[in-house]
Amino acid sequence: MEAHGRVLSSATPSEEEMDLRRGPWTVEEDLKLINYIAVHGEGRWNTLARCAGLKRTGKSCRLRWLNYLRPDVRRGNITPEEQLLILELHSRWGNRWSKIAQHLPGRTDNEIKNYWRTRVQKQAKQLQCDVNSKKFKDAMRYLWMPRLIERIQAASGGSLQASNLLPDHPAGQPGQAWPCQENSASAPAGSNSSDSVVTQFSSPPTSDSFTGDYYNYPDNCIQGGENNSDEGTQAGFAQLEDGWYENRGFLDFEQGGWGENLWSLEDIWSTQQQV
DNA sequence: AATCCAACCAACCGCCTTACA
DNA sequence: CTGTAAGGCGGTTGGTTGGAT
Q1: How does DSSP classify residue A263?
Q2: Residue A45 approaches strand B within 7 Å at CB
Q3: Does pTM surpass 0.70?
Q4: How far is Cα A63 from Cα A85, in angstroms, rounded to an integer?
Q5: In this predicted model, which residue has the larger pLDDT, A197 or A85?
Q6: Which stretch of DSSP H or E encloses residue A67?
Q7: Where does this one sit in the cell (predicted)?
Q8: Is the C-beta atom of A82 closer than 7 angstroms to strand B?
């Protein structure tokens, strides 16, 4: 018990008086919190902490409840559907974790944030590019996400190929630049234009409805407006090709996530080169 | 068997926003 | 209108664990 919980040697006398605890929660503390909320409900966290006899800050109680103790918290591996949704929503909203989490029932913003940092940013690192770079975003959208869709389709017994679901796939539109995606860093908070699309995912997506909706973007999402620079797009993919095979890129990601590779990256890029 | 290292994730911190007196 | 407390959010840290050497 005490082996885990550090006792705060606080900077302020008032906190010292309260003998606030930090660090991992004990079973006893969890039970106190659960029991108190079962009777009195959530909210007013500072009062809750005091009345429940928890030597924790209200913030700490709130975090523990929301991220761990809440009965509807969903634990375990992030499914391909959830991964796809996270990638999509992050491309639209950036690091708006709580907003993203609202569309993944049972998942917490903390969990999604951790997923992003550990799995996704690792890939960017391996590709030697920034997670917010166009290079990485394009790779995500045109390699990784279609793969996820294929996997989802396969799992549901569907026969559609991801490439067939991409209306703007360059293989089908010779000479046309790959569309630029929305600049997530500048995505307006609470943008209504995207909300209408995202609500389609607000319940756990089935693979069928999901893939269908996924490609039913509003035009401004697909085309990316002023960010849709042909020069930047082509340069990004040239760069990507340069480092790709040696970096192993998403192969590692998929292996880390759930097993075998879906595509040969050589296939992907030879298709791209034939355009 | 011991050590090292990387990945994972729970928890904390600080800032910003909101509610209320 | 203003000040303050509480809540919410995103970034970061640090402990644990498991795999590699």
Answers
A1: S
A2: no
A3: no
A4: 24
A5: A85
A6: none
A7: Nucleus
A8: no
Q: Is A34 helix (H, G, I), strand (E, B) or coil?
A: helix
Q: Is the pLDDT assigned to residue A207 strictly greater than 60?
A: no
Q: State the pLDDT confidence band at A39, using cuts at 50, 70 and 90.
A: confident
Q: Is the CB of A121 under 7 A from strand B?
A: no
Does the nearest atom of strand B lie within 7 Å of A43's Cβ?
Answer: no
Q: Which nucleotides on strand B sit less than 7 A from a protein beta carbon?
A: 7-14
Q: Is the CB of A74 under 7 A from strand B?
A: no
Q: Which residues are CB-neighbours of A52 under 8 A, at least 6 positions away?
A: A32, A33, A35, A36, A61
pLDDT single digits (tens) A153-185 = 777 776 544 444 333 333 333 333 333 333 333
Residue nearest to nucleotide B9 (CA to C1'): A114
Segment holding A7, helix H or strand E: strand A6-7
Cα A262 from Cα A56, distance rounded (Å): 47
Distance A275 CA to C20 C1' (A): 43
Q: How confident is the model at residue A271 (pLDDT cuts 50, 70, 90)?
A: very low
Distance from CA(A115) to C1'(B8), angstroms, rounded: 9
Angstrom distance, A22 CA to C9 C1': 20
Nearest residue to A93 (alpha-carbon basis) of A77, A113, A68: A113
**How far is A119 from A252, CA to CA, in rounded Å?**
10
Distance from C-alpha of A129 to C-alpha of A101, rounded to nearest angstrom? 26
Domains of chain A: 6-69 (1.10.10.60), 80-274 (no CATH)
Of the listed ranges A10-24, A49-63, A92-106, the least confidently predicted one is A10-24
CA of A103 to C1' of C2 (A): 37
